[in-house]
Amino acid sequence: MENNIFVVFDSNLEFSLVQIRIGKVFANTGLCEQAVDCYMRCDRINDALDICIQLNQWEKAVELSRQHNLRDVQSLLGKHAEQLTGSIDKQLAAVQLFRRAGRYIDAANIVFSIATQERVKQSQPIRLKKLYVMGALLIEQYREQNKIKLAKKAEGQKDMTGAAIALQGLLAEDTMLSIEDSKLIDSAWRGAEAYHFFMLTHRQLYEGDVDAAMKTALSVVEYEEILDTLEVYSLLALAACASRQFYVASRAFMKLESIPTQSPDEREVYEKLARTIFMKLAYYKSKIQFNA
Known about the structure:
Blueprint: H1 2-28, H2 32-41, H3 45-54, H4 58-68, H5 73-83, H6 88-100, H7 104-120, H8 125-156, H9 162-176, H10 179-186, H11 190-206, H12 210-220, H13 229-242, H14 246-257, H15 264-291
Helix pairs in contact: 1-2, 2-3, 3-4, 5-6, 6-7, 7-8, 8-9, 8-11, 11-12, 11-13, 12-13, 13-14, 14-15
């Protein structure tokens, strides 16, 4: 009987050692899931967690930490993310880090921050649009994550209706999120929309579809808090003049002349341009009336 116990013990020990070796091989080749599985089979949970952190599989690390009450992975994640500051490449690495950990709001905040930096640098609109789309997609992933959580709750609370569970989820979300994060979620696609309409107006002008360009330019005005005011109303004035909507053009020029950051010389340029356009318009109108 005793011999049998030792045989079982030896076989279990050998199995554990083999699993650890295999786990190390998987870890060295970047196969996190397989490595974690090996370590979990021989009850080496902390080693499994270390592998997740080492391979930047933070979502799995957070999951293990919650399931087995291990050390606070979120604080480790935060410290690691703090090191990824400075260049845009490092900030994007931090975005990837938070995304893998399922912290989509934090990831989106960084992306929108990068977009703001790029806006100040006056980067290409297409680049800015891509950044805003990336941030918005992260918010959508956050929403999808919440839907999955609500679905899991619904399985365990069959007596509650779907609407009640959804309401409960929204209330829980309100308590968890800050005001800034709530605003971020509500306006997730606004930046992408702004640059989409801005570029669409340019394309329509180049294609000669001036009426459509003017209508789109009016939509661009609604995103004045994101786009540069000077560019917005210059574009509107151009589109309005091209489509011969001079009332709209007049209002656009009035806005351009009243921008507080404009220097007197710049303001004078717009005033002269407006006078030239509307004097020509008055001349053509009087000529038409005379001929009539």
